[in-house]
Every structure is written in structure tokens, then in C-alpha cells.
Amino acid sequence: MDRRAFSRNVARLAGAAALSGVVPGRALALGGEPVEGRDYTKLTRPLAMANTGKIEVVEFFWYACPHCFAFEPIVEPWIARLPAHVHFRRVPVGFDALKQVHQQIFYTWEALGLVEQMHLKTFTRFHVQHKAINREDDMLGFAQENGLDVNKVRQAWNSFSVQTKLRQANQLTEEYDITQMPEMGIQGRFTAIALPSAGPASVLATTDYLVNRIRQGG
């Protein structure tokens, strides 16, 4: 599904990513080894990567995406078990003006060192409290509700560093040709896709496979 169609239809698919019955590795159990074009894609032009000695895995997400919200309690224990040779980071997508506001939420938390404290709370506000953060005033109200320094949040929200992160995120999203969420970028070479038939956890089994493949020189 292309990103524009996904954006239009995501609300109608809210129930598709229910957590019940989703087990990491199910895609492998059902279909064997991941298949290119079904479980993952290979980038036509690999991205230039810094030589850090680690394999980078990027989670592309959107706070208003119900699939990403369902994915969160699945991905967190997976992150905790990652080996030392894997570097994980999150990148919010900005396919349109509204999603760029939602990107700004994440990078504001990052600038303030509050991702661990506020990331899940932000998802909860969207999907449990059903209170979107679609403009700066929403963000400042959310900050106040959580006892944060509103002036510091405002400064970070409007900072040059956050604006720079937004541009970098959009560039990386384009380079990986991200079209679905949640979707993983692996070492500038592959994107792992969540299979609708297996639930969002299927992307983790494919990511593990691709990380091991790269680790072994494949």
C-alpha cells in the first residue's frame, strides 16, 4: 500500500493490529525463511552508513498509527534483548503536514531527554485517551498535564535542532522508501515489513533474520 493510501485508510484499519495471538517469530514458523518482496525489500541503492561496528536498525513509526501503538508492547522487550552489535533507533514519519507535527513531538522529547518518560504516554494520549496532539498548544497542554516545564518544552519544540531532525527524518524515510508502519530499516540495505496475516510482530522475526544475514556477511 502506498503511503497516501495508507494515510487515508489507517483509521479504518484500527482493529487489524490487535495484540491477541501475535507471537514474535510467527511469520517464520508459518512460512519458513523470510521471502524478498513479501517479508522484506532490498534497497536498489544501499545507503552510506558510518563504520561503527554495529548494525543499525531503524523503526519507522507514527504516533497516530494504531498498528504502531499495538507494536509498542511487542517491540520493547525485543529491544531489551538486542545484542551489543545492533544499534536501534526510532524515526517518526512525516508523509504530510499533520504527521510532521507528530514527528515534532518525538524530537521535542528527544531534545529534552524525555523519550523514555513520554514516548508511551504520547501513544496512550492518542489511542486510549483519544486526544490528539495536532498543534503546539496541544503539546504544551500535554506537557503541563505531566508536570513538565512548559517553557522548556516550547523552546525545544521551536528549536533549530528539532527542525534539523525533522528534515533528516524525512530524508531517511525517503531513502528507505518507507510506505507502511511499523516498518524497519536495516543497515541501509533492507526494509522489513509487517505481514497483515501475521500481525505487527512478524516484522521482528524478519528483522532478526536480516541482522543475522548481514552479520554473517550476506
Describe this structure in words.
There is one protein chain. This protein is of the alpha+beta class and 218 residues long. It has a single domain, classed as Glutaredoxin (3-Layer(aba) Sandwich). It is 48% helix and 11% strand. The chain has helices at 3-9, 26-31, 66-80, 97-111, 115-127, 136-145, 150-157, 160-176, 202-215, and strands at 40-42, 55-61, 86-92, 183-186, 190-193. Strand 2 (55-61), helix 3 (66-80) and strand 3 form a beta-alpha-beta unit. Helix 4 (97-111) packs antiparallel against helix 5 and helix 6 (136-145) runs antiparallel to helix 7. The longest helix has 17 residues, at 160-176. The protein is globular and about 50 Å long. It starts with a helix and ends with a helix.
Structure, briefly:
The chain is of the alpha+beta class and about 220 residues long. The chain has 9 helices and 5 strands; from the N terminus they run ααββαβαααααββα.
Question: What are the main properties of this structure?
Answer:
alpha+beta; disordered N terminus; 5 strands; five-stranded mixed β-sheet; 218 residues
Instruction: Note the total helix count.
Output: 9
Shape: globular
Order of helices and strands: HHEEHEHHHHHEEH
Range of helix content: 40-55%
Overall CATH class: Alpha Beta
Stretches where pLDDT is under 50 for at least 5 consecutive residues are 1-30
Largest sheet: 5 strands, mixed
Chain oligomer state: single chain
Average residue pLDDT: 86
CATH superfamily: Glutaredoxin
